[in-house]
């Protein structure tokens, strides 16, 4: 199929994915120029990020009355012997899996909280392109897990418009006697006017809604940051039955941490990559899923080569970083240890090449991954150690080390703080590598309709800054032309921008 036909096909449905009016898709005024700050003033960059992260906890505190009712509903299902299902796509899918893992590792009853993400567990480590665009896939995965009348679904979507999640929540409302919850981070009025499928959910009396609007993201459109953090915080608060005092304690902990401790790690890791080296994150089963989440989400956000399937002696290409689960021998044991359960894959005939269990096991995250990487990567590999010992979080890279005391804090709190630290760290590392401009993701990978729209909008913003006016349609055709021969790690925003500017110079 030619690029023109593909572009036309997208344009025919693009009205369903034009999301530029949503707050989660807009530029944050406090982080304009973040790329320059990451290179020239890390202190200011870290200060801006911390202020925004604290704002999201204030949002959770402001919403405590609604969150309390949400928690009561969740606890009622658990007390009656029902199960709570969590689902999402991309970042919200990973936070759903993380919450199930934290539940399993916290001594709670296994099997009472279940999670699934678009594409199954394989999508945790490698994005499954276009999967989230299919509402029927959401319904299908929910059904495959045996969702029934006594169960409750918590459907989690940063923007509030993801077709996969909408498909799952609409299906759940017809199966269970417990009305499902729909969690999202944009205002109802704008969401309803911009996206018809969202309007249907918001107007459905059989679905309970919880709006957790946090405003713009630190990095424009990068909902792996504030949006997914507040969604993880609030959903975790509900399934563990935690109160407002727990949220206040979490905020106090974040306030007490000087994010400047990250400076030496940010500089060192970015310098390693500039020297053609790589980083293997060594961690334990207690923290593994949060470390894996941040490292894998760098790929779609910044158009990096994703984690390689390192079952081969010499992979053709490989990622900048990888994960090694300390003390776990073999991929199968490592994955079970990381998830706190056996992996769940999709063995569907039409998707199994991408979603099957045997593919997941080709990503060997066991204790041998550092030595494997050292054998086939051209540059030197460095160990970034992240461990939890006696409720003390330990970070070390090269000669740098830091310890954060989490005495009297639960595992959920530790994971939330670690998520914020890692998201901040990786975003500023990528800024130093030039993987975004100002606070716009110029290296975003357009792997689904939502991201195609986002890519087009970013190109239009940059063209306008240069005094060039082009239509949405013109940019769309040029983008698909560039996509036709692009490599996985090409900066398609920049390549398309250069092509358009070159044609008018």
List keywords for this structure.
505 residues; alpha/beta; 5-stranded parallel sheet; 5-stranded mixed sheet; 10 strands
Rounded to the nearest angstrom, the radius of gyration is: 22 Å
Beta content comes to 5-15%
* Tally of DSSP β-strands: 10
Number of helices: 21
Helix content: 40-55%
Spatially, the strands of the biggest sheet line up as: 2-1-3-4-5
| Average pLDDT score | 94
Helix and strand content put the structural class at: alpha/beta
CATH class of the domain at 64-211: Alpha Beta
Low-pLDDT windows of residues: none
CATH superfamily of the domain at 64-211: Glucose-6-phosphate isomerase like protein, domain 1
Can you tell me the overall shape? Answer: globular
CATH architecture of the domain at 64-211: 3-Layer(aba) Sandwich
Largest sheet: 5 strands, parallel
Instruction: Please name the CATH topology of the domain at 64-211.
Output: Rossmann fold
Q: What's the end-to-end separation, in Å?
A: 30 Å
């Amino acid at each position: 199929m030619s690029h023109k036909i593909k572009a036309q096909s997208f344009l025919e449905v693009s009205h369903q994915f034009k999301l530029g009016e949503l707050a989660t898709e807009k530029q944050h005024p406090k982080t304009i120029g973040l790329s320059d700050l990451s290179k020239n003033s890390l202190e200011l960059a870290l200060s801006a990020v911390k202020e925004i992260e604290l704002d999201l906890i204030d949002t959770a505190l402001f919403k405590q009355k609604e969150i309390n009712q949400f928690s009561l509903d969740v606890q009622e299902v658990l007390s009656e012997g029902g199960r709570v299902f969590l689902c999402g796509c991309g970042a919200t899918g990973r936070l759903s899996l993380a919450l199930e893992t934290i539940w399993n590792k916290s001594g709670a009853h296994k099997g009472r909280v279940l999670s699934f993400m678009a594409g199954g567990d394989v999508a945790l480590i490698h994005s499954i392109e276009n999967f989230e665009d299919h509402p029927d896939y959401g319904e299908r995965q929910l059904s495959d897990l045996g969702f029934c009348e006594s169960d409750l679904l918590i459907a989690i979507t940063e923007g509030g418009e993801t077709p996969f999640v909408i498909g799952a929540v609409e299906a759940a409302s017809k199966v269970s006697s417990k009305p499902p919850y729909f969690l999202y981070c944009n205002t109802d009025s704008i969401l309803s006017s911009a996206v018809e499928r969202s309007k249907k959910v918001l107007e459905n009396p059989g679905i309970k809604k919880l709006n957790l609007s946090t405003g713009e993201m630190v990095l424009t459109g990068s909902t792996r940051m504030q949006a997914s953090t507040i969604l993880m915080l609030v959903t975790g608060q509900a399934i563990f039955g935690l109160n407002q005092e727990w949220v206040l304690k979490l905020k106090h902990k974040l306030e007490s941490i000087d994010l400047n401790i990250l400076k030496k790690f940010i500089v060192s890791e970015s310098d390693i990559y500039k020297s053609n080296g790589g980083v293997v994150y060594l961690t334990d089963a207690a923290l593994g899923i949060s470390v894996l989440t941040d490292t894998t989400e760098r790929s779609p956000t910044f158009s990096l080569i994703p984690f390689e399937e390192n079952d081969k002696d010499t992979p053709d290409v490989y990622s900048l970083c990888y994960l090694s689960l300390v003390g776990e021998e073999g991929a199968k044991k490592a994955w079970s240890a990381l998830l706190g359960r056996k992996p769940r894959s999709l063995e569907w005939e039409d998707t199994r090449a991408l979603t099957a269990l045997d593919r997941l096991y080709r990503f060997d995250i066991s204790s041998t991954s550092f030595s494997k990487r050292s054998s086939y990567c051209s540059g030197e590999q460095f160990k970034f150690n992240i461990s939890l010992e006696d409720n003390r979080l330990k970070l070390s890279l090269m000669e740098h080390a830091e310890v954060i005391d989490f005495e009297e804090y639960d595992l959920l709190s530790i994971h939330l703080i670690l998520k914020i630290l890692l998201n901040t760290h990786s975003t500023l590392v990528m800024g130093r590598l030039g993987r975004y401009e100002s606070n716009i993701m110029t290296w975003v990978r357009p792997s689904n309709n939502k991201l195609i729209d986002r890519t087009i909008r970013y190109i239009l913003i940059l063209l306008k800054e240069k005094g060039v006016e082009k239509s949405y349609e013109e940019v769309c055709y040029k983008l698909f032309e560039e996509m036709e021969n692009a490599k996985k790690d090409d900066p398609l925003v920049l390549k398309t921008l250069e092509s358009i500017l070159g044609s008018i110079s």
